[in-house]
Amino acid sequence: MVKFLLTTHFDIMRSLILSLALCFFLTPNLLHARDILIPADDFPPWKIAKNGKIVGGIDFHLIAALLDGLEFTPHYELLPWKRCLVIMESGDGDLISGVTMTKERQKYLTYLAPPYKTKSQKVLFVYRGMKTSFKTLKDMEHKTIGLLRGASYFPGFYENQAIMKYETNDDLQGMKMVAAGRLDGFLITKENGEYLLKENPQIKKDLEMSIWRHDKRVEVYFAISKRSKLTKRIKELETRLKYLVESGEIEKIIINSLK
Predict the structure, then answer these.
(1) φ and ψ at 97, to 5 degrees?
(2) What pTM was estimated for this model as a whole?
(3) What's the pLDDT tens digit per position in 37-66?
(4) Residues 179, 196: one domain?
(5) Helix, strand, coil fractions of the chain, as percent rounded to 5
């Protein structure tokens, strides 16, 4: 009887120890299975980095909305853009934002449909009170218009020799030059310009967008590495993305991020 009780007690203790050991070894793996790696570059206002980490930006909030309701936990790694694509190709990265579709990238990325951004809008920031002075491209003739060095723009602008062009090293420099009266206007992507005004209230009071606009269709996507565990959840992700786009939630997040 004593031997039976001792044997039973030993079996119980052994089962308990085994259960604890399994919990110890399996729990990290289960947690790890819920983690996803998102490589991202510093590209305000879409992706904003501070102290070597991605801490915010439009895409940061869009990804949170995309993953809402799923069990995945995003972890960001700050990298140059080309390195982000390398990480996605190797399968070390799971999800990437702000990517356009090319044949080469389609070899290692699965693009989530629909694109979450379909238009790139160039605007002209001018000194406050000059908004209606620039309604067409012709209104820029015989004016000094700033633009970012190395950036691509649109047909009719570069070819027009009557438009005096001044290249700047960064967007903020150009915006400050308009505020100081050294440029008649500065060309910039709408979201980038709004973000700079948000971050620099000292020039926000002096500038506004002119009536002139130039829209270009550019489809921007979320994409999954074809080697990622997320490939099994593509239908769920696309259903969620479609809802965010069609409900206007994507546009609402973009607007709120720039307020």
Answers:
(1) -120, 170
(2) 0.81
(3) 999 999 999 999 999 999 999 999 999 999
(4) yes
(5) 45, 30, 30
